[in-house]
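Q: How do we represent a protein-ligand complex in a form that can be generated cell by cell?
A: Start from the inputs.
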Amino acid sequence: MVNVAVLVSGGGTNLQAILDAQDAGKIRSARVTLVVSNNPDAYALTRAANHSVETLVLPKADYPTRAQFEAALDDALRAHGIGLIVLAGFMRILSGDFTSKYPERILNVHPALIPSFCGEGFYGLRVHQAALDYGVKVTGATVHFVNEIPDGGRIVAQKAVYIEDGDTPETLQKRVMEQAEWILLPEAIEKVAKKMNCACGA
Ligand code: GAR
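Then emit the C-alpha cells for the protein with glycinamide ribonucleotide bound:
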C-alpha cells in the first residue's frame, strides 16, 4: 500500500474525487494519508477533515522562500512515509531541487491536453480562457509526472473534452473536471501505485 500526500491550494474537487474513488474501491493500491495546503483557507482542507485525513498547512507568511517551503514539505513527507505525491490544484511551482528528490513519484493534473496551454502562468481558469481565445474545438486534461520543467514531465494519461458553442472559462472548467480530471486522476493514482507495489514485491 502506497501512502499518498495530496497537495492542494483551493476547492479540492480533485481531492474529493480521489477520496471517493478510494471509498468506492477504485483505488486499492494507495491510500491518502496526508493533505498539504499552502493556503490556510482552502476548502480542500475541510474535505480532508471530513474524511478524517490528516492535514498540514504551510502558509506563505511562515515559509516566504521556496527553499523554506520545500524543506518543511520534504520533512513532513518523510515523517509520514509518503511514497507518492499528488498535485491536485496545487498552485505553487516546485523547484528542480525538490522534484529531483522524487523522480516519477509526483503526479500533477493539468486542465488541458499538454503540450497545449501549459507551462508557467497556465493554471486554473487561465488555461480554459487560453483555449477559448485560441479557438480550439477539443481540449481536455492531462495527468503527468512532475519534473523541473513546469508541466514538462512524462505523460501518464490524457482525456479529450469537446468545447461547445457559448462556453465560458467557467463552463469549460466544469466540463473538463467532470468528463476528464475527476476520472483520470484517480485512475492514474491506482495505475502508478500498483506498479510501485509490484516493484517493491508487495
Ligand atoms: C483543476 O482544474 C486543476 O486541473 C487545476 O486547478 C483546478 C483545481 O481544482 N490545476 C492547474 O491549473 C495546475 N496547473 P480543485 O481544487 O477543485 O481540484
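The longest helix spans residues 169-200. Residues 8, 10-14, 44, 88-89, 109-111, 123-124, 127, 173, 177, 181 surround glycinamide ribonucleotide (CB under 6 Å).
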